[in-house]
Amino acid sequence: MNVNLTEDEIAFRDEVRKFFAEKYPADLRKKQDEGITLRREDTIRWQKLLYERGWFAVNWPEEYGGTGWTPIQKYLFANEMAAANAPVIVPFGVAMVGPVIYTFGSEEQKQRFLPDILASNVWWCQGYSEPGSGSDLASLKMKADREGDHYVVNGTKTWTTLGHVADWIFCLVRTSSDVARRQEGISFLLIDMSTPGVSVKPIITIEGDHEVNEVHFDNVSVPVENLVGEEGKGWTYGKVLLQHERTNTAGVARSKYRLNSLKKKAAQSIHDAAPLMRDQNFARKVAMVEIELKALEYTDLRTLAAVATGKAPGPESSILKIKGTEVQQSIDALFVEAAGYYALPYVPEQYVIDFPDEERIGYGAETKSSLRYFNNRKATIYAGSNEIQKNIIAKHVLGL
Amino acid sequence: MDFSISEEQSMLADSVSKFMENDYDFERRQEIAETDDGYSKELWHTFAELGWTAVPFAEDDGGLGGGPVELMLMMEQFGRGLVVEPYLANVVLAGGILRRSANAGQKSQWLTPLIEGNLQAALAFAEPQGRFNIADIKTTAQRDGKGFILSGNKILILNGGGAEILIIPARTSGEQTDEDGITLFAIAADSAGIKRQAYATVDAQQAADMTLSNVKADATAVLGEIGQGFSTLQDVVDEATLAVCAEAVGIMRTMHDKTVEYSKIRVQFGVPIGSFQALQHRMVETLMACEQSRSLLMWAVMLDTADNADTQRAVSAIKYQIGTAGINVAREAVQIHGGMGMTWELDIAHYFKRMTAIDLLFGNADYHLDRYIRLSP
Fold this sequence. Notes:
heterodimer; A: 400 residues; alpha+beta; Butyryl-Coa Dehydrogenase, subunit A, domain 1; Butyryl-CoA Dehydrogenase, subunit A, domain 2; four-stranded mixed sheet; B: 377 residues; Butyryl-CoA Dehydrogenase, subunit A, domain 3; 3 domains; four-stranded antiparallel sheet; globular
């Protein structure tokens, strides 16, 4: 056991650091640092830069255009990307549907979909939850009835993140209701969002943003070749996807970056106030989160090391989801606490490009701290709420 | 970065683990704990024969050249077995001072027999007024010709009652809490002026309080440099802190596992209590606490291997974790065992008491959280 990086790992880290220093566009960096919401074309431009360097599909096998990196390399890459405050990669294509397609899809599907996911030519979104099916996902009702060489799809998906900018959606649909277990009869279907009968309705969330949507399907015709794997096996495929999603949602590197930013901010005198880190109560809260995050970092590394020996991410990934989102939310709350009264002005118009500094309320993005805090209450709810994660661990790890 | 352990390390862990399984079940442990000595002298010799007492010492000193990883692996197993033999006191605390500060003559006098299992030793790291601050030392050592005269009070000397040699930090200069001016002495326990009051602790360990009244120490009793003993004392106490954290990780996992198993067999309202979601989620919390604690322990141990300056901070991080999340695992185990968890008969109660002691030893969670902050860059 040792914590030191090898010479090769140091060289790799330096190479990645150099890439972010040189290739991360200044205008995107400015937006990120000032808390300005990225547009679709911003994200695509950044993802294409990573793709061109061969560093986009970090977790994919090499044969499909992945990196073939060791767990430590992936860890170093995530750290450098977060330390540069580079945009978060939109996960729905590369981290979610991609692995399902290369694991369970046909040769034709791999050739048709994977290259466009790699190159960020096609923007994917996720169709899992329904208005009546949240934590109890297996109760989903959206129907896909086979008629000749296509399915006729009817129903509603909800909480569809970035559905309003997406080109395609992957859905869990019910292809049979004549089943012994509700988990049977569910299939994994890929649907072009431009198909007639698909409509998107915005949902405005707590912080006032349009991020998620309701997507309605009214007699939408989907060719049978868009079915992934076997009919009725969608639940199994979806579970594999969720396990990938859960390891991704730990967000350790991003939390490290944010906690460091918080500490730097709190060590300064802002608005002529004494540095907050001198307040022992605040310093203790920061230290408690930092220790939990360090533990999580090593739990994450241990999981990665286990995956490298050939194990698929198992139910243990639920631990990463629970702890990762708890840490994120603790950091969100500390930013609000650090901002004090400056967390209260609701001025979202400040977070557009070229907002004049002389009109800005608060220091930096202080007034955004509360909006992030509000928005990220979602983290313990999405991807299977943390209570559902505990059910999963209780059943599959503890055998209860 | 590498999380795997070597073949030798794996063999060591297996040998301790098998011993606990085959020769140290809970009934045996209780029998031993209730003897006058409070531990088994026979088993202590077995520990020495198996090489365990030699693990952390340099090969030149007759040791096996092990490091923090070896210590972690052993202590975790000692935790599972609730070992009462004075490994921490002899090997980690007293042995830790001797291997760092003793000269060749002192090593052959004390360290060699300690490694062979033929000498009982102890380190007097605490004073009544000092709480968790090991630099808070009122015990004085005044010059007396070539030697010194020691006076003062020490408390909670682990293995202090049975120890034949006592390592005593005393103040040769400076103010009460100065780090400078602390000198380490090795003094025979039967020296004139030493009065010891031995007792068992709540977790069935053996300890003693001690009064020193004009105890004579000659120059050969001084370990290391005069007035410069603090950094050694601190390194040893940090190593011992890490050792009890590893022990705690072993205990936590055992308590968690036993609780889950119990919840599967204990039937109330016609069903196993483990089928209740209110209990399931709490056992998931204790599982996560076990995993997070193991992760922090591995971090701290690996930093130590790299001889990193951040080691002290990492030690405080894991000790804070044990004192918070770890204690919660222990409390939940008793709660979910219900009335049975309250009984002297069941091992759960004794694991709980050991966790309580470990939280206090070398500074509790509050102490280490503040130390962590103080050491932060």
